[in-house]
Amino acid sequence: MSVTRTGEPRVPTGQDTHRWWALVIIALAQLMVVLDATIVNIALPSAQSDLHMSDGNRQWVITAYTLAFGGLLLLGGRVADLVGRKRTFIIGLIGFAGASALGGAATTSAMLFGARALQGAFAALLAPSALSLLTTTFTDPKERGKAFGIYGALAGSGSAIGFIAGGLLTEYLDWRWCLYVNIPIAVIAVFGALALLHDRPGHKNVRLDVPGAILGCGGLVAIVYGFSEAEPRGWSDPVVLALLIGGVVLLAAFVWWQNRAPSPLLPLHIIKDRNRAGCFLTMGLAVIGMFGVFLFMTYYLQVVLGYSPVKTGLAFLPLTVAIIIGSTQISARLLPHLPPRALMVPGMILAAGGMLFFTQLTVESDYAGELLPGLLLLGLGMGLTFMPVFATATAGVAPQDSGVTSATVNTSQQVGGSIGTALLNTIATTSTTAYVAAHLRNPAQRELVVREGVVHGYTVAIWWAVGIMLLAGLIAGLMVTAKPPKHAPTDSPVPEPVP
Fold first, then answer.
1. Which of 55, 73, 140, 329 lies in the 20 to 30 Å Cα band around 133?
2. pTM of the model
C-alpha cells in the first residue's frame, strides 16, 4: 500500500477505512456458525440423558442443523442478493440468536430438534452474506487474499474451539450453555455490523426459486428421515421404503425443475463440469464418514471410556490440528505443482486408513495407542483433500456463478454430514441391538454385554465409513482430471473448511 508525504498509509479510493474491524465482525459471525456444528457434539450425551432421547433419534440434534443449513444455503445466497447482504447478515444473526435461546430452553427433544433446524435456516442466510460482504469490503486483491486467509483460519479453527468450549460449558455449567453462548456473540456481531458494515442495496430483479428450495430440501429431509426410521422399523418397512423412494423422486423433480426454472437455485451447467461434479461428490462422501466419526467418538469417549466432557473435547484436538497442517502446510504447497487428484486420492486413502484403527476398538481401548494414530491419519487425509476440492471446484468459474459455486461446495458438505450422521447412526444402533440380543444369556452380565454391543455397533458403522471414504477416493481419481493450477487462487471466495 502507498503512503502519504507524512508517512501515513494512503487508503485506496473506495476502500472502507474500518474494513479490518469489519473483518472481525464477519469472522466472528462465521465462527459462530462453524462452531455450532461441533460444540453440540460434546454436549449430546448430556442432552440425550436430560431430554430422554432414543439412540435412534439422537442424531437429529446434528442432522436438523446440517439439513436446514445445506438445504437452504443456495436460497440464502439468492435472498442476500435480493434484500441486500448487510440486511440479510443482521437478520441471520438475530434469528440465529433467537433459535439458540429456544434450543437452550428446550424441555423436549422435539423442541430441541426444531430449534436446531431454525439455527440451520438462519445460518443459511448468514454464511453466504458474510462471504459476499467480505468480498465487497476488501477490493484490493492483496488485502482480499490476506482477509480470506484470516477468515479461513478462523473458520477452520472453529471445530477446535467448538470441541473445547463444548467440553468446558457442559462440564462446568450445563449442556444448554452450548446453545446460549451464541446469544452474546450474535449481539456483539449485530451492533458491530450496524456500525461498521456497508453494502449496496439489493437487486430487485433477482428471483427466488422457492419451488426448487422446497423440492431439494424436501427430498433431503425424506431421505434422512427414512434412514432414521430404519432403526426402529427395519429397512423393508413400507414407511421407510416410501420415505426413501419419495426422497429420490423429489430430488429427481428438483433436477428437472432446475432445467426449466426462470432463475434456478442451482444452474445445472455448474455441476455438468466433470471436475466440479467430481469435487462435489468427493466432498459429500468424505464428510459422510467424518461426521459419523464425530458422533461415535463423542459417545465412545464419554459413555464407554468415561471421559469428562472437557477431556473429550481435548481428545479431538489432534484431529483438528492434523486437518489444518494437511490443508495449509502440505496441500497448499503441493497444489501448484500437482494435479488435484494426486492429493485427493492419497488423502482419502489416508483417512480410510485412520478409520481402520477405529474398527478395532474394544470397551478398554487405549487412547494413545489406538485412537490417537487414527485421529492423526484421518485429519491429515481430510486436510489433503479439502484444499484441492475447494480450489478445483471454484477455479475457472464465471464471476456471476462464483457465489453459487462456493455455496454448492458448502451444500455438499452439509448434505454429506446430514446423510452420514443419519445412515451411520442407524447402522450402529441396529448392529448394537442385534449383538445384545445374540449375546445376552446371563442377566448379571447385562451391563458388560450392552457396552460391548455399543462398541460393536460403532465398529460396524465405521467399516461402512471406511468403504465410503475409499469410494470418494475412487471418484476423485476417475472424475477429477484437472491439471495443476498455474497459481493458487487468492482473490476468489473460498468456502469455509468443514469443522
1. 329
2. 0.82
Cell readout for 128 is 453466504
CB 48 within 8 A of CB 58: yes
Residue with cell 458438505: 413
DSSP class of 9: B
**412 backbone dihedrals φ, ψ, rounded to 5°:** -65, -35
pLDDT in tens, 416-469: 888 888 889 889 999 998 998 888 777 777 788 888 999 999 999 999 999 999
CATH 1.20.1250.20 correct for 14-205:
yes
Find how far residue 252's CA is from the centre of its chain. 24
14-205 with 267-499: one CATH topology? yes
CB 394 within 8 A of CB 405: yes
SS3 (DSSP) at 59 = coil
- The domain ranges of the chain are 14-205, 209-262, 267-499
Question: What kind of architecture, by CATH, is found in domain 267-499?
Answer: Up-down Bundle (1.20)
The candidate with the shortest Cα–Cα distance to 298, out of 477, 178, 217, is 178
C-alpha cell at 219: 427430498
Strand-pair partners of 3: 9
Residue 43 CA from chain centroid, whole number: 17
